[in-house]
Amino acid sequence: MNTPPDAEARRAVKPVICYPVETLPAPDMDMFGAARATLIKTDEVVVPPREAATFTVPAGHFFRISSIEGPQVGDLNLWNANNLEERFYSGKTRALHGTHITRGHRMWSAFPALRPMATITHDSLEWYGKDEFGGSVHDVIGTRCDPYTHNLLSGGHYHHCCHSNLTRALADHLGIPVAEAEPHVHDVLNVFMCTGFTHDTGQYFMKASPVRPGDYLEFFAEINLLGALSACPGGDCSTAHSSDHAQCYPLLVEILKPDPATLKNWRSVPASGYDRSHGT
Fold it and tell me: How many CB atoms lie within 10 A of CB 97?
């Protein structure tokens, strides 16, 4: 390896934030706080271990994902309930907010809409921060465990990866074949999962989630949402994923309605104002 004489000088160049967010419209957390004090549960879905389930959330409602029996991570997909082409965009969410998201951050939708789909209004694991390994919770790094990578690395045909779980759940909800549902499944928010990149090799890692029964991540629906949540076959992801051996637990999704008077100043954000001419 030939190291140039100015190698250290090149490494010492200071980084520049790609997407400064000073002009990004901030959510009104005080308004959400007032609305949270009035919440009434209207529905709930229990997601079985190593399976996925769907749920719907009207715009202006909240939904909450909770640990109920033991430490368990979940893989979350979100779509515009009225248009599945508008779906969660993990890459742009990561570019705007960072590798892990928490209270006050938003889940953004794919092009051409690029707007907030949901705002995180409460995170009982916010205290975790970043640990000595560089790990944190609720990542938008990992894509979801899937049978294709499992087959590539280990062989075999494991059907309870989160990708397959989400595919089956969406197919059941829409009443369509899994082959039609699969293209709609996308990169996830890894709820409760503790992840990061190793300092030496830069590899994506996971470690035991700090989640415990009673912990929850709560969202405000900025548009009408269809969600799908998989209770990952890795359990708390302390040893492996895509496994029938890890201890797994269910997850609870609750839909909560606020007093509409508390949201009198809220408006759903319209789709991106870009004219989509692309210079033509």
Answer: 20
